[in-house]
Design brief:
This protein has two domains: 2-60 and 146-173, no CATH class; 64-133, no CATH class. It has nine helices and two strands; from the N terminus they run αβαβααααααα. The protein has helices at 5-15, 34-46, 64-68, 71-77, 83-87, 97-105, 112-122, 135-147, 155-173; strands at residues 23-28, 54-59. Helix 2 (34-46) links the parallel strand 1 (23-28) and strand 2. This is DUF4276 domain-containing protein.
C-alpha cells in the first residue's frame, strides 16, 4: 500500500485545500524501525509539490495494541475477555498483537473487521497519560487534536515541520538535471 503513497499524496496535494483539508496516515509499524519508517514517509512527502498537510502516525506494533491499551473499553466490547491474559500483555510490545487480542477476546480470527467495529465504538479518547496505556494511541490522539487546532504543536512536531519545509525549499531551489 505504501507503494501507492507518492501518487496518492500528489493527487491530494493538487486537489485538497491547504486552508481546510488535512491528511492523516496511520501505518502499522509491524517489525519495521520506527525512525526509519517515519523518515521514509517524510521523504515521500518532501518530494511532492504541492504537498498536502499531513500527519503521519504509527500504531506500535499494530492498531490492535490500541484496543489492548484500554481494558474497560475491551471489556465493554467483549464481555468474555480474559483479564488474566490481558494482564500479561506488555503495552505496545512487538509480540504478535492481533494474535494476543484474539486469545484475550476468544473470537474467531476471521472477524478482525468486527473487532475494529466493536472497539471503535468503545475506545475513549483521552489526553496523553489518560486511560489508554498505548503511547502510540495517545500520540495519535494528540496529533489529530493538534492538526484540528485544538492544541498547539510541541517542539518535536515543530522541528519535523521545519525540517520538511527546508527540504522542500532546497529541492525547489536546486537546479534541474
Amino acid at each position: 500500500m505504501l507503494d501507492l503513497l507518492p501518487a496518492t499524496l500528489r493527487a491530494w496535494g493538487k486537489s485538497l485545500s491547504p486552508e481546510t483539508d488535512r491528511v492523516v496516515l496511520l501505518v502499522d509499524l509491524d517489525n519495521d524501525n520506527c525512525t526509519w519508517l517515519l523518515q521514509k514517509l517524510f521523504d515521500v512527502l518532501a518530494a511532492i509539490e504541492p504537498a498536502p498537510i499531513c500527519l503521519f502516525r504509527l500504531a506500535i506494533e499494530e492498531v490492535e495494541a490500541w484496543y489492548l491499551g484500554d481494558w474497560a473499553a475491551l471489556k465493554r466490547a467483549f464481555p468474555k475477555a480474559k483479564r488474566m491474559l490481558w494482564s500479561n500483555y506488555e503495552q505496545d510490545a512487538i509480540c504478535g498483537t492481533w494474535e494476543m487480542l484474539q486469545q484475550i477476546i476468544q473470537d474467531p480470527v476471521d472477524r478482525k473487521t468486527f473487532w475494529a467495529e466493536k472497539m471503535g465504538v468503545e475506545l475513549e479518547i483521552y489526553e496523553a497519560g489518560g486511560v489508554n496505556r498505548s503511547v502510540s494511541f495517545q500520540k495519535f490522539c494528540s496529533g489529530v487534536r493538534r492538526l484540528a487546532g485544538e492544541v498547539s504543536e510541541g517542539p518535536r512536531a515543530r522541528r519535523q515541520r521545519t525540517d520538511l519545509q527546508a527540504r522542500t525549499k532546497a529541492k525547489k531551489s536546486s537546479p534541474k538535471r
